[in-house]
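Weekly puzzle thread! Below is a chain. First person to post its structure in token form gets bragging rights.
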Amino acid sequence: MMKQLGFSMLPGEAWWGGSVHAGHEMPLTAQSVLTLDPDRGRENDQFAPLYVSSMGRYLWSERPFVLEAKAGRVECRGTGEILLEEGFGDLRGAYLAACRAHFPFTGTLPDRRFFTQPQYNTWIELGTDQTTENILRYARGILAHGLPAGILMIDGGWQEDYGVFEFHKGKIPDPAYLMYELHRMGFGVMIWTSPIVGSAGTHYKRLRDKGYLLLDKDGEIAIRKWWSGYSAVLDLSNPEPAEWYHGELHRLMDCYGVDGYKFDAGDVYFFQDSDRSHVPMLAREQTAVFNEVGSHYSLNEFRAAWKFGGQPIVARLHDKYHSWNDFGLNTLIPHTLLQGLLGYAYCCPDMVGGGILDCFNKGQKMDEELFVRWAQANVFMGMMQMSVSPWRVLNEENAARVVKALKLHASLGETFYRLAQNAAQTGEPITRHMAYAFPGQGFESVSTQFMLGDRLLAAPVLEKGAAEKTVWLPEGRWKSWKGETLQGGCKVTLPVTLDDIPHFERLD
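Winning reply:
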């Protein structure tokens, strides 16, 4: 039976929630016209059946629900009870109340290296050409060009086929040697994995005959279309295939020295509400089953998540375009801020410069200024991930600026980790919206700056060719990155060059 809830926004009220992929359209206000359906059209990031208000209210349901905002009215409909809870003062109060009631943090967190070291992903540089030679060349290039070692992710293309958890013998004939060399250079190593099974060959037949694959409404193997073609999907709600999957992952760790996994796919479009899974559930809930599998590995990363706030998973933003304003750099801050407000505190921005492979075809001209500004915008976020080699696509001066940004980020590692430890106990985001940290000062619509904890304000330059940066400083005294003491409670406009990464320390 469909459940419904409707209410009017309070004067001046602002709301955030639902889908990280819609973060740049937040907050919802009396002027907003927007429909958010967690089952359609916004499938690429983290979701939660949660909305939080600047005036201390929140919405929650245990099941997916559609939200429509128009002319100051909010209408919700879903198959589960939808709660509107009030009386929590402000945005911070609303979020923490929802966190305590519905997704309390576990006290555990992902591997410390996520917060103290940069990440490198082979996807943009190598595509599916993941060979021993190419991977080692990439890793050696990182160190040779002055970038610090960190976590290296070997992306899709390393395995024999989807659903076969063995290295491709023609690409990586000696996986143990590859892992040894990467570890010797100081890298932790993660590899790409997914619940997808290639729908041909003996491995498919074997898993089909064991009853490990998801069935459609007619009881046939569910074959689903995705960017790489048509594939079957493991039914991870069934303990037997889940145990088999864990066994394969642990075998790769024990035999070759793999440290962890990038858990890709798991999006709602792989599933249907009418599917016959071992445990009957909605399509949207299948994503959380996949999240649960990956949460057992301290080095994990997810792009898709559902109602998994408070759990020790790294939530990475969906691949973005190499663009200033077309779903590129302009979405980095608002999407990261919404991750925190949905309970995904251990969040990672997309790869520096963007993660859409087609934007980086060999020979395509790179916007060097955009690449530098993207790296700088990542500096004060809890994690930082590179893929494109800056020494390949940038001139020497701009490549040095990116190295400087990575080293500044690495110098903040202990700060990031302390905030992550605090998040594990309290639920407080690492990267915080200005309205979260400073309620009642008019920051609801500010999405070009953010707080790292409660004392460091980051205001990266996000516009091409900018010679100045306007910052909204909260009340009190602030010290700029240039050492100036400024009085807050107003906007300040300061000159910037391409070397500047505007940030401010709270003095009182």
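Puzzle host: Confirmed. Bonus trivia for everyone else. The chain has a mean pLDDT of 95.
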